[in-house]
Amino acid sequence: MKLIYFFDENDGKNKKLLGGKGAGLCQMTKLGLAIPPGFVITTEVCKMYYQNNKTLPKILLNQITKNIRKIEKTTGKKWGSNNNPLLISVRSGAAISMPGMMDTILNLGLNDQTVKGLATSSNNKRFALDSYRRFIQLFGKVVFNIDDTKFENVLTKIKKEYNILDDNDLNIKSLQKIIIEFKNIYKKTIKKLFPSDPYEQLYLAIKAVFDSWMGRRAIIYRQKNKITKDIADGTAVNIVSMVFGNMDSNSCTGVVFTRDPNTGDKKIFGDYLINAQGEDIVAGIRTPMHIDKMKEEFPHIYKQLMKTCKLLETHYKEPQDIEFTVEQNKFYLLQTRSAKMNAVAMIKTSVDLVKEKIITKSQALLRLHIDQLEQLLHNTIDDTFKKKINIIKGIAASPGAANGKIIFSINDTIKLGEKGDKIILVREETKPEDVPAFFTSTGILTSRGGKTSHAAVVARGMGKPCIVGADFVIDYKNKICKCNNIILHENDVITIDGNDGNVYSGEIPMIAPKITNDFKVILQWAQNIKKIGIRANADNDVAAQLALSYGAEGIGLCRTERMFNAQDRIKLFTKMIISKTTNERKFMLRKLEQLQKNDFIKIFKVMKNLPVTIRLLDPPLHEFLPNQNELTNQIHELEKLRKTNKISNMKNLLEIVKNVSEINPMMGHRGVRLGITYPEIYEMQIRAVFEAMAKLTKLKVNTIPQIMIPQVSDINELLIIKKIYDNIKSNVESRYKMKFKINFGTMLEVVRACLTSNELQKHVEFFSFGTNDLTQAVFSFSREDVESKFLAEYINKKILAKNPFQSIDKNGVGNLVKMSVKNCRKNNKNIEIGVCGEHGGDPESIKFFHDSKINYVSVSPHRIPIAIISAAQIILNAKNSIKPRIK
Amino acid sequence: MKLIYFFDENDGKNKKLLGGKGAGLCQMTKLGLAIPPGFVITTEVCKMYYQNNKTLPKILLNQITKNIRKIEKTTGKKWGSNNNPLLISVRSGAAISMPGMMDTILNLGLNDQTVKGLATSSNNKRFALDSYRRFIQLFGKVVFNIDDTKFENVLTKIKKEYNILDDNDLNIKSLQKIIIEFKNIYKKTIKKLFPSDPYEQLYLAIKAVFDSWMGRRAIIYRQKNKITKDIADGTAVNIVSMVFGNMDSNSCTGVVFTRDPNTGDKKIFGDYLINAQGEDIVAGIRTPMHIDKMKEEFPHIYKQLMKTCKLLETHYKEPQDIEFTVEQNKFYLLQTRSAKMNAVAMIKTSVDLVKEKIITKSQALLRLHIDQLEQLLHNTIDDTFKKKINIIKGIAASPGAANGKIIFSINDTIKLGEKGDKIILVREETKPEDVPAFFTSTGILTSRGGKTSHAAVVARGMGKPCIVGADFVIDYKNKICKCNNIILHENDVITIDGNDGNVYSGEIPMIAPKITNDFKVILQWAQNIKKIGIRANADNDVAAQLALSYGAEGIGLCRTERMFNAQDRIKLFTKMIISKTTNERKFMLRKLEQLQKNDFIKIFKVMKNLPVTIRLLDPPLHEFLPNQNELTNQIHELEKLRKTNKISNMKNLLEIVKNVSEINPMMGHRGVRLGITYPEIYEMQIRAVFEAMAKLTKLKVNTIPQIMIPQVSDINELLIIKKIYDNIKSNVESRYKMKFKINFGTMLEVVRACLTSNELQKHVEFFSFGTNDLTQAVFSFSREDVESKFLAEYINKKILAKNPFQSIDKNGVGNLVKMSVKNCRKNNKNIEIGVCGEHGGDPESIKFFHDSKINYVSVSPHRIPIAIISAAQIILNAKNSIKPRIK
Fold it and tell me: Rounded to the nearest 5°, which phi and psi values hold at A696?
């Protein structure tokens, strides 16, 4: 029975038998790569070991000896030799890599005799002794579970004795002393001498590998990850001959990337060091040489390296990160793994590897990591900058980094920002009236709110870096803010990193985003593959233009209230809200209608021939009004100054604000409820859409507007607004003597709407799930409150696996969505159903919506590339996962 | 073919043939009741009329003549006679009563000749002429659709001419003139003379009845109410001879109830008037005599009346409200219908009719109107009191009426109330810290909030009358409040009616509630019949005792936070909340634990052998803290007074309040979320329950506590609290060396919990739907906000048929409940599932929960009788509705 495969004896396809590592070593050997010779003891042996009451089968020992002989032949080294001893490494390797399994033992085969041989062959006594003391420690720890601190204590003691600071400075004397003491530890602890027979060492190591298979951590890991026996049954043991790059000046060691991991350029990238070991490169004792230099110094080795790189890339279909060693002019590949690259390099190599026909377009798309792509779309902090002083950490609310001086006032931010100053707007929280200041700041930092607070949502929409809920206190009056013990004054410069929520003092340099041509190529490939539609959440023509350039297939959510955010309009809008009579309100609405109509015209022009879904006024009115408490304070200030004329106005305003204010505004007088109690508002908005369409139709611009009603909970709400819509439609049509087709639809963001979607379906032409509000309602979590109060704790305590406002909660919200879609489609299988919550930008959620037969997701312009690539990956992964089943 | 039935020719069972009215007349005639003779023209004739191109069948005319003859024989009157003319009434009557059908025509048969005969027979020329002019007008209006204003204009003109104010004062002269002018109207309008032939009059009237069957209103009514041909196909026509109580002094007319409608006493109740017509009693021209007087004056008529009453009650199984007329010593029953009674009389007659074996217990229960029973349980305003001045109308939040002087301050309400003053507490809104003032006031009136605002919920729980959301403005400083143009000062007396939301100035007398012995009997009957359990929402032993006395089968909801409402505790609780360290919090909790444990002991004692479900702390913490805006104002006041030492404390408090405050507290940091972030709070509460049980177990008192977790949205929340529960359980058990069984369960009040109830089910022993919160979440309606802002408009506009916070929304919330119950029961069909929202007290909702296989509803103590009776009615109605199907 064959219990052992020499690396060249097996094609490496049977991972279950050889383990992952063993299979890889066999494969690479078969590829003709210069793997140091060695062999695999199969997982079958592990099973026999346990069946056999934890003893190694007798027939194994014979096979081991034979294979050791084979290594000796290949390497010219001799097992247990005092001259040129063969040393080996031993490592575990199950079919699936598994934490809790035994680590590598290096330099096995060393004893008091062979260490002399190593000294001779390496011409380096210190190195040989150092290898020996390391081996004794590692072997003791791994095989006999000897407490590592015992060894470390000896080391510390002797270093002190010799006045040595660094392990690398241990001299021969001290090493000899250490070896003696280490061996003493064995005697004391296991009541036996350190095993000096290399075979005994090997058998003990193999047993230790097998024992680790049933170690507590490994068992738990298998249970947790549902690794059953049919997936991995026992571990293999890999025996590889040691090679040394520090034998002489014909030896060296190096690390290379097969392509430049920063640029993706097809150019070998890395260093090597002559007469050195791998760890010497890491330790940075000597300066390594650029790999290009090897071409001159070791031309044939360089050639072999280049060949190896190409072979590996072709085989693994990924740029590789390689460790190699040259021992006395002989090249050995020690390790290879997929190269870690930045986003630019990932994109470039994806395109290049396709051009080189190494991978397909599908493979190119699948190898992209979505998280990493974020880098491409926003400023990032220069990670090489050393003087970073982290002041606080808040909630990363909108990606990208920014620096600038702190300004607390909205007006100053606008004034200075328009002048061109770089400003970080720092506030307790923000309101719609503050939005003009968003435009003129480079980033926003608040002490309140969560990922979906006003500041966060607006910033994300604009693609501005934003951190919210950071732990500081602002004293607006004295223009300072306190973070922990640090006091920041207005005009102090800070840097914020919206990717991780860190706030730094001072100015840290930025790396600008790069939308390369390669990226555009990739996006095009993804577009052609993906099925689910990708539309944009965009409220103005600039955002619409950006979205379009990224490949958006329309606007899935145009929030009409956002159009009022511009400074000149917010006042008009506020006046409209606080109108005491319908006539007064209608007067303001007429003015707003003109503005809104022109906005629509601009957006429709950009999005010609593409659908633009316009959501009528949604948020509670008080969002547009000043804060009660602040007003009270202002009134008191005025009282102090005896400015009586202003006071009464303020008091009136306060009264209005009090009247409009709600205890739970998120579930208050908003959305369609406003549309019903103040029909003139929705009338104005609907008319503005029709008029905009009419105007463009006359100019022969084809537009596809859709009108969407928010917060609907009951069919009758919809019918009332539909009647308004019908009236306006027939009015505009008769005035223009044309027909206008504008789809009428509703958000599904109230649970009741989802539960009765089948009924609503009869009266609408499309639906769009508002998964933000829906998640709030399904969890009874107020986004703003829970994100700042307890959500982090919920995730820490693993109550929730993820923030449900970022990644769709499949169990609750998701099920409701599915149920609702199923009900709608029952009677109208082609009805358009979209999603316009923040979830649309989350890859996992996109997959869920795709699987739920949603037609499209609508995401902020900045996330469109990511959404497109995710959507393509979903299709590709589905194909991959189907394949094996067919096979 | 028989087209007509004389009243004694048919048993009146075939409503489809005879119409409802005709069938009733036949039935009563068969019963031997003195119905004026008459006959029914069947619905078949109506069909023939339409088949025959709207002409009356020839054979009908012959049959009419025959039946008129029959009436003449019975009455001794003569059709068309100038001496003693037979007059008749004609009225429609389909199988189902239907608005839009023709009204009654009275006195048909009158013309210039017969009017003289009527004058002779009645010995009253004015009466005869008056009847004639009325007939002409009614006939013209009904048969020929002559515009009524034409007649009215003549009437007005002639009254002016004769200087007559009231129709009843028209003298013979004026009447004669009117008759002439009325007949002229005919000539002008229909170009024909007024038809004077009684037969022609009759045929025209019959045709008019048939025509009205296909009138627009009748058709729409049938469509809307889905009255198809198999239910009602055509209308019958009822011809009844007229009788006159004003013929002579041997004639009279009267109205009686077969039992006293105020007390329910078995005693005829009513008046009669000699030589008068029914309308004379109504007009109150002469004072009618008490019906008892008839015994002496018309002994044989009285006897006949008594017999009639008994027959009718036995036949209709309901006390009757009867109109009768005696014409020349002959008794006629003109009309009978079920007597309207107050709640006390309804209850008494229910019990009496069962005793008298007229109805069964089931029938006794079914005849009770739930809404009316409310009267029995609360003070009501004395409706006979004339000087009611209505100031405003708010939202009726807690039933019952109360009067007292207005007090705006919490402390004054407590002080004066304890002294024994009757006080109406008037506030903008209330908070938990105000609850002590609820105890010392007779009623509560607020200007904010809806039916589920704090004030409303607490008041309902206590059974105190309460009106919320009334439109007034309080000036606390000057102790006045403005309602419209009226200014109320502190100490002004008002009366509030929590049944309809009306606020009156001054003191209106009250009628006290009566829980009669009869009511107790009824409750017992209902208890024996009902299936669904009825438990109480009770937070203290007093409420528990009341609930028990009404028949509660346990406590379904004991809100632990309510226990902190007492004045001495609220401060302790507030301190606990604002603790800066866990240790500080634990110190406060230890004090609270003792109080809470003792409360539990008291409640458990009352509810021994019955389940008591204790809900752990639920509301958001800020509810226990002062209002931000008020604090700001107070700080400013203190600043003015330069009380610097107090200011810093206040500012600290304000800071804490700001930190704790939430934007949407209803969906914020509350319920189990608090239990997880501050585990020491739930630990304390769970321990207090176990300790209370332990103590009572030692005293041999059997208790059945259940611990219920609020606001759960995810299984992991439950598991974390379960671990705390398990620890405390084993700790207490080992200390007492006893085992304690306390069921562990959760609220289903978060949508996600309902959607995943199947999963939660594995870890709980019971569920309870919190339909208040669930309704909020399903609609995305914040109860407090929407009730005060737009819900009324939604109901007015028929967007919602009912307030979903009062009556369960079957379509949305209800479906979710059903779905959830189904999922729970799939794997555990006996798991206890209750409902503890306010809906538990609404009969329609109780029916829904019963049908959804909910085990019990929990309602406020004051609604328990109503819930019990409703629950019994559900069973009885179900039985009734099944019967016909079996038949």
Answer: -70, -35
